Amino acid sequence: MITYYGYTDGSGEYYIVIDAERCNSCEDCIKVCPQQALQMEDMFIDLEDKPVAAVTEEHRKKIRYTCSPCKPEDGNVPCVSACKLEAIKCIWKPK
Length: 95
Ligand code: SF4
Ligand code: SF4
Known about the structure:
Elements: E1 2-9, E2 12-19, H1 28-32, E3 38-45, E4 48-55, H2 57-60, H3 63-67, H4 78-82, E5 88-94
């Protein structure tokens, strides 16, 4: 299951995308996020609950402002760089 956290509005597209099947619950992305915007959440996958990285409820609706200091427009951001399994991506398309 792939979850898109973020939104598209008149100013562009802003998402943190997490692939629950790929995520191995290592928490490396959580440790490097300077905004404490990530947490583990249990998801029901392959008939069992598995802890998977997720954007916190608080940051989902303001992801553009939360993630801007990481400068996604310049390429990789800390959470994406930390993930060895390519389970987390950042989509950043300001107009
Ligand atoms: S670094 Fe990758 S594998 Fe580890 S918790 Fe984050 S998304 Fe999951
Ligand atoms: S882009 Fe930066 S602020 Fe946003 S989730 Fe990743 S590490 Fe945290």
